[in-house]
Design goal:
Endonuclease Iii, domain 2; single chain; Endonuclease III, domain 1; mainly alpha; 0% strand
Length: 221
């Protein structure tokens, strides 16, 4: 039942399998590109990651930042120049316009420094709560819960929350998970959703936290 699960035990059960986990644009720390040290570039990578796979995000980021590596160059570039560089990530027209506009906003309204502020991030194009929380957590190391489809689905399967939408899942997780573990939720559950708790057919017999899971404890898969 919701509120009766121990999220610390669950996350500790996942940690040995997935270590540090993942975030958009990289698979582990050994392959972390230099541009991932910049909060602005983490934001752009997270925008590019929307509705695509991690490997596509990484390829699009490498292509984009090789040609247009700075906020200034992205702001000055025509969207038509950005589009082919990010095509691998999908939706190049929409994402190119958003990236150019974000760069312009950061330059003109924030003196070239991406703000570590939820409301200011949400005011930017193609930045919703998931993207903003991802940037706060991974770029600024601020306690934040990034709820993507994996986190939403797995949190509900486990019984940590009961929510019909990602925003509701985020708010319920904030109530039951200690804030020093908020970043770990996304890092670990995303990998778990990619490797074991698959969307169409979860591999419950391989799950290290099955005994804590409402779904896993009732299935023979």
């Amino acid at each position: 039942m919701v509120g009766e699960k121990d999220p610390v035990l669950i996350l500790d059960g996942l940690r040995p399998l997935y270590g540090e986990g993942v975030y958009p644009g990289r698979s582990d720390k050994r392959t972390r590109p230099e541009w991932m040290e910049s909060p602005f570039h983490v934001l752009i990578a997270t925008v590019l990651s929307q509705r695509t796979r991690d490997e596509n995000t990484r390829e699009a980021c490498d292509s984009l930042f090789t040609v247009l590596p700075t906020i200034e160059s992205l702001s000055l570039a025509d969207a038509e120049l950005i589009e082919p560089l990010i095509r691998k990530a999908g939706f190049p027209v929409q994402k190119a316009k958003a990236i150019k506009r974000i760069a312009t906003i950061v330059l003109e309204e924030h003196a070239g420094i991406l703000p570590a502020d939820m409301d200011l991030l949400l005011s930017m194009p193609m930045v919703g709560r998931k993207t903003a929380n991802c940037v706060l957590a991974y770029a600024f190391n601020v306690p934040a819960i990034c709820v993507d489809t994996h986190v939403h689905r797995i949190s509900n399967l486990l019984g940590l929350v009961r929510s019909d939408d990602p925003d509701g899942t985020e708010m319920q997780l904030r109530e039951v998970v200690p804030d020093h573990l908020w970043k770990d939720i996304n890092a670990l559950m995303v990998r778990h959703g990619q490797v074991v708790c698959l969307p169409r057919r979860p591999r419950c017999r391989e799950c290290p936290v099955r005994r804590h899971c409402d779904h896993g404890s009732t299935t023979d898969r």
